[in-house]
Amino acid sequence: MAHDKQNRDAILKRLSRLNGQVQGVSRMVEDRRYCVDILNQTAAIRSALRGVERLLIEDHARSCMEDAIQSGDQDRQRVMFREVVELMEKVRD
């Protein structure tokens, strides 16, 4: 997939931040920090990950799906549609 440069940069920035958050939670567990504080951080990680997922789905819709629509290939369009439906179900859980 050819990511939009703006989205790619945003995705990489968010993933870098997520990496730091996960490492921070590991340190919190090692330091035996208060469970509620750790859970608050894991909730923040889940929220940030959902943001990454939204950007990736947006990229997919703007590039892959748009290409399939413009191609006129109905089989390819159906495949792309099914993929997006499956992705939406996965990220919803």
Count of extended strands: 0
Helix content: over 70%
Low-confidence stretches at least 5 residues in length (pLDDT < 50)?
none
Largest sheet: none
Strand content: under 5%
* Average pLDDT: 89
If you compute it from the alpha carbons, what radius of gyration comes out, rounded to the nearest whole angstrom?
Answer: 17 Å
N-to-C SSE series?
Answer: HHH
Pfam families: Trns_repr_metal (PF02583)
Family: Belongs to the FrmR/RcnR family.
Organism: Paracoccus pacificus
Protein name: Metal-sensitive transcriptional regulator
Question: Which secondary structure elements does this structure contain, and how are they paired or packed?
Answer:
Elements: H1 5-30, H2 35-71, H3 74-92
Give descriptors for this structure.
single chain, mainly alpha, 88% helix, Metal_Tscrpt_repr, Metal-sensitive transcriptional regulator, Metal_Tscrpt_repr_sf
Report on this model:
The protein has 93 residues and is mainly alpha-helical. 88% of the residues lie in helices and 0% in strands. The chain has helices spanning 5-30, 35-71, 74-92. The model has no long low-confidence stretch (mean pLDDT 89).
